[in-house]
Specification:
The chain has 219 residues and is of the alpha+beta class. Helix content is 35%, strand content 13%. The strands form two sheets. It has a four-stranded antiparallel β-sheet. A two-stranded antiparallel sheet has the order 1-2.
């Protein structure tokens, strides 16, 4: 019996089924592994995105992965009042912002940008909540651990990738930067960050001692 390769419409149906049934966002590579070799995954995703545009459910990209989600203007229908068990403190939000724009960066570099010492538990909380991950170790004396944002950070703030972080013009328009900022001021671009000077973390290589030795009170 002769079997014909599925056409574009059938590939689109299969991609739609995979995204609908998945428990979390899927990358194009993850989708391709379940499709016939040579299937046009990108074309299928593009077609689905166009077809669902403006519908009650839309296809979006988060951290270079695809998922269906409720249209933003209908989110009010899904909300409910409940107690939020955990909230990020001002210090934690500042720390997260510094890591996002300066990554990969060390604890000392974070403290240098903030101008104050980090309290015990700030980085622990960000790591525990999945917003931040251990990136590697600097090839410098003491081999300090470096930190970077994790996919959970992109998902929580609805960013497709780090290129979507607001730049200087957007921050000025939002009133987050003074209009009289110094000439030559530049908002760091995390998408250009490199870790060529970092060593990868080895299994079991964590930052626990650093946390355990931090007894500085939160500002």
């Amino acid at each position: 019996m002769i079997q014909f390769a599925p056409d574009d419409t059938e590939i689109e149906r299969r991609v739609e089924a995979l995204l609908f049934a998945a428990s979390g966002p899927l990358s194009a590579a993850e989708i391709a592994r379940r499709l016939p070799e040579g299937a046009d995954v990108g074309g299928a995703i593009s077609a689905l995105r166009d077809r669902y545009q403006g519908r009650g459910v839309e296809l979006e990209c988060v951290a270079d992965r695809w998922r269906f989600r409720t249209a933003a203007d209908l989110s009010f229908m899904m909300t409910e009042e409940r107690e939020e068990p955990r909230r990020l403190s001002k210090a934690a939000l500042e720390t997260l912002a510094i890591i996002a724009y300066h990554q990969p960066c060390t604890r000392a570099e974070i403290e240098s940008v903030r101008g104050v010492s980090l309290s015990r538990g700030t980085l622990d909380l960000l790591l525990e909540m999945g917003f931040v991950k251990l990136k590697g170790r600097r090839r410098t004396p003491g081999r300090p651990v470096t930190y970077a944002t994790a996919d959970r950070f992109l998902e929580h703030f609805g960013l497709s990738n780090l290129y979507d972080l607001p730049g200087v013009q957007e921050m000025k328009a939002a009133g987050l930067l003074d209009l009289s900022i110094p000439v030559g001021f530049e908002v760091p671009d995390p998408s250009r960050a490199t870790d060529n000077d970092d060593e990868p973390l080895m299994p079991g290589d964590d930052d626990s001692p650093e946390f355990a030795q931090d007894f500085v009170a939160e500002d």
